[in-house]
């Protein structure tokens, strides 16, 4: 990963993008995409579409969702505490004690997610799994009036953003899901653009995946692709308590995961595998026996149907503030997708 690409990744990870509030991160995406695309547009839903060779054939859509899970302010009580609802799927236990930022109209406000201390919990309360409805955000306000001057119902909240590198090329941050997907598709499109593809490539930073796969529906209708590659994260199974017999062997640093299953076109998959073998790009193969819970499910069904491939980045501790990925897996995924985009042309038939 070169310096420019690394800086782009850092910009993504330090920019808030809770579902429904993606505009700041889409500004980052647009700025990066303008350096290599023929055109960059934003639709009324908020999806950013970066087009390379837009009149080529076939039409390929690369999709990575930019939204992260977060919280929303629902009520500000008279003591100045904020009560919240989730934006996306949280395990409430990982939220306890987290530092957060409330993204208000006048700028970020720092707070903390809390409940009463363990010393004050009854024996029965200690046995209970916490629920988000029993947690609150403390911004240090003296009372409700002070809090309401700063914060409004509907304001989004994220855990405090940040990025840390670990040993062996690993990195952790909130919202690796799926800012690494956005990085991958935009970097793939950038690399493909330098190799004069026959295909039209539309790299789309989709919105609102975490609350119902919404952005990919509207952007796919507009792009009208023949082929699609969706990049999301997938569960790494190389940590304690996860059963490989149930979920497959997926390891950080061993390459992106190529999925087989109902959402995946077999010709697209074979083309990806061929390009991986030719370029000696490590990949991991896994099966998905049901409809994917990501943008691939909706992209496949757009218009008269899209031939879809699913390329996933192994991720430890998904939907937590410490999501962990391998930077090498990101680079390999971007290179593989770039090679796929350059390898296909008008004569390719993706009928299964």
CATH topology of the largest domain: Aminopeptidase
Helix/strand-derived class? alpha+beta
How many DSSP H or I helices?
11
CATH homologous superfamily of the largest domain, by name? Zn peptidases
CATH architecture of the largest domain: 3-Layer(aba) Sandwich
Shape: globular
What distance lies between the first and last C-alpha atoms, to the nearest angstrom? Answer: 35 Å
What gyration radius follows from the Cα positions, in whole Å? 21 Å
Q: Which class of the largest domain in CATH terms?
A: Alpha Beta
* Average pLDDT metric: 96
Q: Describe the main β-sheet briefly.
A: 8 strands, mixed
Quick tags:
Aminopeptidase; Elongation Factor Tu (Ef-tu), domain 3; 2 domains; 8-stranded mixed beta sheet; 6-stranded antiparallel barrel; globular; metal-binding
């Amino acid at each position: 990963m070169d310096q420019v690409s690394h800086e782009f990744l850092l910009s993504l990870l330090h920019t808030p993008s809770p579902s429904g509030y993606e505009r700041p991160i889409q500004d980052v995406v647009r700025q990066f995409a303008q350096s290599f695309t023929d055109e960059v547009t934003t639709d009324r839903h908020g999806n950013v579409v970066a087009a390379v060779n837009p009149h080529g054939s076939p039409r390929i859509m690369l999709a990575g969702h930019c939204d992260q899970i977060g919280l929303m302010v629902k009520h500000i009580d008279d003591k100045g505490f904020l009560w919240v609802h989730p934006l996306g799927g949280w395990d409430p236990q990982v939220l306890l004690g987290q530092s957060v930022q409330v993204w208000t109209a006048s700028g970020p406000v720092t707070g903390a997610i809390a409940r009463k201390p363990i010393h004050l919990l009854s024996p029965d309360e200690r046995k209970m799994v916490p629920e988000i409805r029993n947690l609150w955000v403390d911004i240090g306000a003296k009372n409700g009036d002070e809090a309401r001057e700063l914060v409004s119902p509907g304001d989004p909240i994220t855990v405090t953003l940040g990025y840390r590198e670990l040993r062996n090329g690993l990195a952790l941050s909130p919202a690796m899901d799926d800012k690494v997907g956005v990085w991958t598709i935009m970097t793939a499109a950038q690399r493909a653009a330098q190799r004069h593809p026959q295909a039209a490539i539309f790299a789309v930073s989709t919105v609102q995946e975490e609350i119902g796969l919404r952005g990919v529906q509207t952007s796919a209708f507009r792009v009208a692709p023949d082929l699609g590659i969706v990049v999301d994260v997938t569960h790494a199974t190389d940590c304690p308590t996860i059963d490989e017999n149930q979920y497959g062997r997926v390891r950080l640093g061993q390459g992106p995961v190529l999925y087989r299953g109902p959402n995946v076109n077999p010709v697209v998959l074979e083309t990806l595998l061929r390009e991986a073998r030719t370029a000696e790009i490590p990949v991991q193969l896994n099966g998905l026996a049901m409809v994917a819970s990501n943008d691939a499910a909706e992209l496949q069904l757009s218009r008269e149907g899209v031939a879809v491939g699913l390329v996933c980045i192994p991720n430890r501790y998904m939907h937590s503030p410490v999501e962990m990925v391998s930077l090498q897996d990101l680079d390999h995924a971007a290179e593989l997708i770039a090679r796929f985009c350059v390898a296909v042309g008008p004569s390719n038939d993706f009928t299964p």
